[in-house]
Amino acid sequence: MFEGLQDKLQGVFRSLRSEGRISQDDVRRAVRQIRLALLEADVHVRVVRSFVGRVQEQALGDEVLSSLTPDQHMVRIVRDELIAVLGEPGRELELEGGPAVVVLCGLQGSGKTTTAGKLAQRLRGQGRRPVLAAGDLRRAAAIEQLRQVGAAAETTVLEPRADEKLEAFADRALGAAREEGFDTLIFDTAGRLHVDAESMAELKAVVDRTGPCETLFVCDAMTGQDAVRSASAFAEGAPLTGAVMTKLDGDARGGAALSLRGVTEVPLRFVGVGEKLEDLELFAPDRLASRILGMGDVLSLIEKAERVVDREETEPRQEFTLEDLRDQLRQLRRMGPLTQLLELLPGQFRGANMADVVDESRLVGVTALIDSMTPRERRNPAILNASRRRRVARGSGRTVQELNQLIKQYRQMRKLMKRTKGQWMKGIRGM
């Protein structure tokens, strides 16, 4: 995400870096390029106008014009203003009473049902006992989808009866949650292809019946300005306490994320960064601003690793074997697509060049080759003679040449790790 905006902003900073000292005309030219980049990223024009005005006012100050590193000062100004535009950091759900109610609203296809499951799993991890309510009475598929999401999240799903009205189901769901000892009711409402009076009336009926602690608007980052317009309409129908933006890991231009807070005054609380139930994070404006500017997001990468990596499997051993290599590759793949992981690192690992940086199919091949070996061969690949190598290649569906390349790379890794053993062990313990 933000690939196009990232590239254009990097181009602006490179042009300033090449100037050495800059003039007011250079600053105005850079600000004009930033304005065009934001508009092309589908950022709301009102937000763009306010943003570039503040950036230009600060950039024309003596600190930037007289600096020997004007590009760095410009990066700092743009980063600070991006954080201001994105709004305050997300916060956990504020749940009171029993059961506390969370109502999810938004257009059809925005990711409400999946978000309901993600919130349920998050609350279960915090020691709460949530229950899901299938409030989309118009689509039978929506109830089945929530049933599957609930099963994956190990959370009970309350379903409407045949011909049951929405108001009656809302009352019954709230009563059932109370009677069965659930402390949180997550109510998934119906979505429409567009905002209309009927959908607003349904949302208001659910809010009036359940008295939610939180009413969250769920929007798709891929829809751009449509997400902002929808949020404004839903905010008029019910008092929203926050928004959840889904598909932030996609290839959207990023305009919705940068516009939502400034236009609707609805704070972003959570962001969806993947398909899995654990891929829901608190919104962090400073981290998102760093990613937009190409600085990476190492903190998110570390948090992702802490969630999925088994410490016992990654514990340093006396000898680094092919079994260790296979286990670490499996841990790495659990963290998600490598292209997304590389985007969290500072540098140019992104976009169209990503396929040149890493080929994930090769990792599958490496794992298959190692799995085709006997335990003795994995611990001591020196015994892999020509006939053994042919057997391993046939068993994995790969070629002998690929196996030879794997053995060569493994030996290089092992030699490097022996040479830097002290520093490597310290680094692992420090992480």
Describe the fold and architecture.
The protein is an alpha/beta fold and about 425 residues long. It folds into 3 domains: about 5-85, Four Helix Bundle (Hemerythrin (Met), subunit A), CATH 1.20.120; about 100-295, Rossmann fold (3-Layer(aba) Sandwich), CATH 3.40.50; about 310-430, 434 Repressor (Amino-terminal Domain) (Orthogonal Bundle), CATH 1.10.260. About 60% of the residues lie in helices and about 10% in strands. It is built from 22 helices and 8 strands. The protein has helices spanning about 5-20, 25-40, 45-60, 60-65, 70-85, 110-125, 140-150, 165-180, 195-210, 225-235, 255-265, 285-290, 300-310, 310-315, 320-335, 340-345, 355, 360-370, 375-380, 385-395, 400-420, 420-430, and strands at about 100-105, 130-135, 155-160, 185-190, 215-220, 240-245, 270, 280. An 8-stranded mixed β-sheet has the order 3-2-4-1-5-6-7-8, sandwiched between helices. Strand 2, helix 7 (about 140-150) and strand 3 form a beta-alpha-beta unit. The protein is flat.
List keywords for this structure.
431 residues, Four Helix Bundle (Hemerythrin (Met), subunit A), 434 Repressor (Amino-terminal Domain), disordered C terminus
**Gross morphology:** flat
Nearest-integer average pLDDT: 81
CATH superfamily of the largest domain: P-loop containing nucleotide triphosphate hydrolases
Residue share in helices? 55-70%
Total strands: the figure is 8
Question: Can you name the CATH architecture of the largest domain?
Answer: 3-Layer(aba) Sandwich
Please state how the strands of the largest beta sheet are arranged side by side.
Answer: 3-2-4-1-5-6-7-8
* Strand residue percentage: 5-15%
- Main sheet specs: 8 strands, mixed
What is the end-to-end distance?
A: 27 Å
Contiguous runs where pLDDT drops below 50 for at least 5 residues: 348-355, 422-431
